Every structure is written in structure tokens, then in C-alpha cells.
TrEMBL record:
Residues 131-175 form a coiled coil. SUPFAM superfamilies: TRAP-like. It comes from Sphingobium fuliginis (strain ATCC 27551). It comes from the Bacteria. Pfam families: AIM24. This is Uncharacterized protein. InterPro entries: AIM24, AIM24_sf, Trp_RNA-bd_attenuator-like_dom. Keywords: Coiled coil. Gene3D superfamilies: Mitochondrial biogenesis AIM24.
């Protein structure tokens, strides 16, 4: 039961996946952009691209924060003792080893990149930046410690250098101060001359002589005034430039004098505050990952989910699956409570064989693994291939190509070809299934005037008169609902006199109809021509509802005839109804009564 439940669930899951895939394929196909999907997929991951942009900004903020912390650590290191600095170096190295040990495995890193796990990538970037920060801090602490150890020597060297520079600075400062005074005087003189010449030009332009002299040979007088003004103003500007340069020289030597008195600072032995070796590499790495993110399957899947409205398709597929699952049960309810009662009320199939005369057929003996057939005078025995077991030494078997030339197609389809023919009064032949160990055999005797419906597949051998071969007639029932429901539209009737050797899985039972019988459709292989044959609804309901039993079973009404029942018709098929092409062939043979 558990196996069947899980098998049913598995089949429905596969069915749902197939339905969903078919719907999605139709949606994608009908959209007309199958070819464009892969080329556009590289620019579709706007959400993930935005996440990566946020990651870049977070890396920048963290880098600036760590750079500021590095600067503050450098400032603090200038005030610490050698012992404290060595302690900080040890603690920083321990933190560095811990970060290096926390490196994710290659598989985790590869999966994070492939699936674009922003959280994992951010953690890895933070780890790399902090490792760089700690390495730079260790380098700075080492330099600060070295500076602290050599601080006294640095102080003495600084004082000696300051004394040597004092004399030079004082001398140069005096020279610069004298030059400043000289340039200041020259600048004042030059500015006065420039102003005077400008005033002369303005005065000339405002006098009455300016217009008059324009027409006289002495009109070059104003040009001379302008040239004098330009020369005096140029000299004034040069004096101003010299004065400003002298000021710079004085300030320079003043600053040099102040610097000579300052002591060296240990901060000069600290590292730069930036993290130059990490930021650029991280930016390139993030850009590469951003490009890869736009090419990931998740990017295309995110776009496809929205573009093709996959959520709605999933719901429709679920509804379709529910409809597919419930439809067979709804059909079974309709068939059981509507169609089957209608079929039960339809008239039965009753074959009218004028030649039969209503001669009764005696029930046969119980089936056995083998039977012996003794030929009467004027008889012959035709045995199907695979059932001829033993015969007497005087027997000379021959071949009969088909059972009945008038029913050539039926003989070929049911395997009644290349029959073994045996003749001779008193010859005894043992008939048994050679290849199938579960097949049993019995003999049904048809007296003169008797007839019975029989499916030729159940025939193992026939004992008939040499001069009056077995006659087989066919009867169609195309207008009968029962015939269509049982999928048997043609019935083959075998007429006596003859002995029919019948075979069946686990045996063949020939029994009197008496008060009527109900049996499975696959079990019935024949019945007397005087019986009324119809269908009835299977009972009880629930085995049919869950597919364990067919809707209809065969039924014969009360009568004096016999039924020919195969005990286990599916024995040769391992207990299963054949599917596919074999199932179609079986159904076709049943339609034609074979």
C-alpha cells in the first residue's frame, strides 16, 4: 500500500512538472523572444546589480573607516612606550591570524560567486579589508616602536643640526631683511613715477592743444608721453615683484629659524593612512562579480519569473493538475451511477444459430496439465504448435497450414497455423502445454447440432471428421450497446460435431449457467449459443472507484447452456494488462472475437 501511495504521488509530481513545463514552454514560445532571451539576460539583473553597487559603497565606507582608525592609531602610537607598542603588535598579530584562519573554503567561495550570495561576498570583502588594515597597523606599530627605541639619539642629532643651521639662518635672514628694505624703497619710487606719467597723459588729453596738435607736425608729442608712462609703470611692476620675492625670502628664513628650534616627532616614522593595495583590487573584483552577476542563472530566472508571469502559470498548472487528477474520478462516478445502469437495462446479446437446434452441451471434465485424445474412425486431430507432446510409434504426423481456410485471417492472428495433423483410427495423442507450465487443458465435446461461441485463442487442438471439417460462423452485433461496452463486436461460433481441446492459464472451467453467472470480462472465452450475454456493474463500489476493478463485468442470464471460463487469463502476462502496442493488439483481437 505504501509503495502504491508513493508511486501515485511520484507519478502526479512528474505529471505536474510536465504540465508546468509545457505551459512555460508555450508561454516562452508564444512571446516570440526565445532567441533574444539569452542575449538580454546579461542586463536583466537590476536588483542584484543594485545590491553589488551597495556592496561597493559599503566597501568604500569600510575602507575610509579603517583608514581613519589607522591614522588615529598612528597618532596614539607616538605617545606610547616601547612596552605598550610591543603589546599592541602581539594583539594585532593574533587578530590577523584569526582572520586568516576564517577564510572560507574554495567550494564555498565558488558557490557564493556562482549564486551571487551578497551576504557571503560582503563578509569576505570585509575580512580582506580588515586583514589589510591589520597588516598596515603592524607595519606602523613596528616603525613606531623602532622610532621610540631611537628617540634619544634622534633628539641629540636634531639639536646638533639646529646649532649648525642657526648661524647660516641668521646670516641669510639679515641679508633678506636688507634686500626687503631696498626693494620697498625702489617700489615706492617706481609707483610715484608711474602715477606722475599717467597724470601727464590724462592732462594732455583734457587740454585744448590735443585736438589742435592732431593736425600739426608736432602731433607725436602725446605718443612720447605714453611711451614714458609705459616704461615708468613697467619699472614700478618689477619693483613690486622684487618686493614680494624679498618678503618670501624673509618669511622662509623666519620659518627655518622656527623649525630649527623644534624637536623631531615620532609620527614621521608612522605609515601612510591610506590602504592603496586593497581598494583598487576590491573595486576590480566587485566590477567583475557585477558582470558575472548579470550572467548568472538566477538573474535570468528572476527576469523570466516576472516577464513570463511564472507565478500565474504555476497556479494554472496546479489547477490543471487538480483537474487531471479529479477528472478520472469524476468520470468513474458518472460511469458507475449513470452509464452502467443504462447499460444494464439494455437488451442482452443472444445469438440465434438456426443450425444449432438448441442441442445441449455437456460440461467438460476438470482441466489438467495434459489430456489424451483417442481418434474415432474417420477423425483427424489438429494440434497447435507447442501442445503436441506424445503419440504412438505408428503415427505419422503431417502439417495442416491453417485451421480453416474460410477464416484465414482469424487462423493467422490466433496462431492456428502450421498445425500438426494426425490421422488413424484408435490413435492416442497426449496434448499438453510444453512451454507454459501454468497452462491446463480440458476437452469440450460438441455433439451433432450443438454450437458454442468461442475465442480461437483458447483452442489448443481440434478433433474433427475428415470429411466434415469443423465449421466456424461469424456474427456481428454492431447495434448493441453491450457489444460496444465489452469491446466485442464479432462473435465466432463453432459448430459440432467436434471435440475442442481448450487451454487456459491455471486451467479452463466449463460449467452450467444454471441461475446465471457474473465474471470478469477477460475470463470468458466462450458460452453456449442459447445463453443471453450482457454486462453488469461491478460490485462493490470502492475498488472500482480507486481503479482496482473495471466498471463492468460480463453476465449471462439463467439457462441450460454452459460457460467456458479461463481461471487466470493474465498468467501469461505476469498478472498485468498489457499497454502500448501490445495492448492495442489485444483490444483489436477482442473486437473481432479472437
Amino acid at each position: 500500500m505504501i509503495s502504491k501511495i508513493f508511486g501515485w504521488l511520484g507519478r502526479k509530481v512528474v505529471l505536474y512538472v510536465a504540465v508546468l513545463a509545457a505551459m512555460l514552454a508555450y508561454v516562452v514560445w508564444s512571446s516570440g523572444d526565445i532567441q533574444a532571451t539569452w542575449t538580454r539576460s546579461q542586463t536583466l539583473n537590476l536588483h542584484q546589480a543594485g545590491q553589488l553597487q551597495g556592496l561597493v559603497e559599503a566597501d568604500e565606507r569600510l575602507r575610509d573607516e579603517l583608514a581613519l582608525k589607522l591614522k588615529r592609531a598612528g597618532e596614539a602610537a607616538q605617545r606610547e612606550s616601547v612596552v605598550e607598542l610591543e603589546k599592541q603588535i602581539r594583539e594585532t598579530q593574533a587578530g590577523l591570524r584569526q582572520l586568516q584562519a576564517d577564510r572560507p573554503s574554495s567550494l564555498d567561495a565558488m558557490l557564493a560567486k556562482a549564486t551571487l550570495n551578497i551576504k557571503a561576498i560582503r563578509a569576505e570583502h570585509e575580512r580582506i579589508l580588515r586583514i589589510a588594515f591589520l597588516k598596515r597597523k603592524i607595519e606602523g606599530l613596528n616603525k613606531a616602536a623602532d622610532a621610540a627605541r631611537n628617540y634619544d639619539a634622534a633628539l641629540e642629532i636634531s639639536r646638533e643640526n639646529a646649532r649648525k643651521a642657526e648661524t647660516k639662518i641668521s646670516r641669510e635672514r639679515e641679508v633678506s631683511t636688507q634686500a626687503l628694505e631696498d626693494s620697498w624703497r625702489k617700489m615706492n619710487v617706481g609707483q610715484a613715477k608711474c602715477r606722475a606719467t599717467k597724470a601727464a597723459v590724462i592732462k594732455f588729453d583734457e587740454s585744448w592743444e590735443a585736438v589742435t596738435l592732431e593736425r600739426l607736425p608736432f602731433r607725436h608729442r602725446r605718443a612720447d608721453l605714453v611711451r614714458t608712462k609705459d616704461a615708468q609703470c613697467a619699472d614700478s611692476r618689477k619693483a613690486e615683484d622684487a618686493f614680494r620675492q624679498a618678503q618670501k625670502n624673509v618669511n622662509y628664513w623666519r620659518q627655518a629659524r622656527a623649525g630649527a628650534d623644534q624637536l623631531p616627532k615620532r609620527v614621521s616614522d608612522w605609515i601612510d593612512n591610506e590602504l592603496p593595495d586593497i581598494t583598487g583590487a576590491l573595486k576590480e573584483r566587485v566590477i567583475d562579480e557585477q558582470k558575472r552577476a548579470e550572467e548568472t542563472i538566477s538573474a535570468w530566472a528572476t527576469w523570466a519569473w516576472t516577464h513570463y508571469n511564472v507565478g500565474k502559470v504555476v497556479k494554472v498548472a496546479l489547477a490543471t493538475l487538480g483537474l487531471i487528477i479529479t477528472t478520472p474520478f469524476l468520470i468513474r462516478l458518472f460511469c458507475y451511477f449513470v452509464l452502467a445502469p443504462i447499460a444494464m437495462r439494455r437488451p442482452s446479446i443472444q445469438l440465434r444459430v438456426p443450425e444449432g437446434g438448441g442441442v445441449a452441451i455437456a460440461p467438460a471434465a476438470p482441466s489438467a496439465t495434459s489430456v489424451a485424445v483417442r481418434l474415432a474412425p474417420g477423425q483427424e486431430l489438429l494440434v497447435r504448435q507447442g501442445y503436441f507432446q506424445t503419440s504412438s510409434l505408428t503415427t505419422k504426423p503431417k502439417t495442416k497450414w491453417v485451421l480453416n481456410w474460410c477464416r484465414l485471417f482469424t487462423s493467422i492472428a490466433t496462431g492456428l497455423t502450421f498445425l500438426v495433423r494426425i490421422r488413424g483410427e484408435g490413435e492416442t495423442t497426449t496434448i499438453s502445454a510444453i512451454r507454459d507450465g501454468l497452462t491446463e487443458i480440458t476437452i469440450l465435446t460438441l455433439p451433432e447440432g450443438a454450437a458454442c461461441v468461442l475465442q480461437p485463442r483458447a483452442l489448443a487442438a481440434v478433433a474433427q471428421s475428415i470429411h466434415r471439417p469443423l465449421r466456424i460462423s461469424r456474427h456481428w452485433r454492431l447495434g448493441s450497446l453491450n457489444a460496444w461496452l465489452t469491446l466485442q463486436l464479432r462473435y465466432l461460433v463453432f459448430h459440432g460435431p467436434a471435440q475442442l481441446v481448450l487451454k487456459g492459464g491455471r486451467g479452463v472451467r466449463v460449467e452450467a449457467a444454471e441461475h446465471g453467472r457474473v465474471f470478469g470480462q477477460d475470463q470468458l472465452v466462450g458460452f453456449s449459443d442459447d445463453l443471453a450475454y450482457s454486462v453488469t456493474r461491478t460490485e462493490p463500489f470502492w475498488p472500482y472507484f480507486f481503479g482496482q476493478q473495471p466498471l463492468l463485468k460480463d453476465r449471462v442470464m439463467a439457462g441450460t447452456g454452459v460457460l467456458i471460463i479461463e481461471e487466470a487469463p493474465l498468467t501469461a502476462r505476469r498478472g498485468e494488462v498489457r499497454r502500448g502496442l501490445e495492448g492495442m493488439i489485444d483490444a483489436g483481437m477482442k473486437v473481432f472475437g479472437m
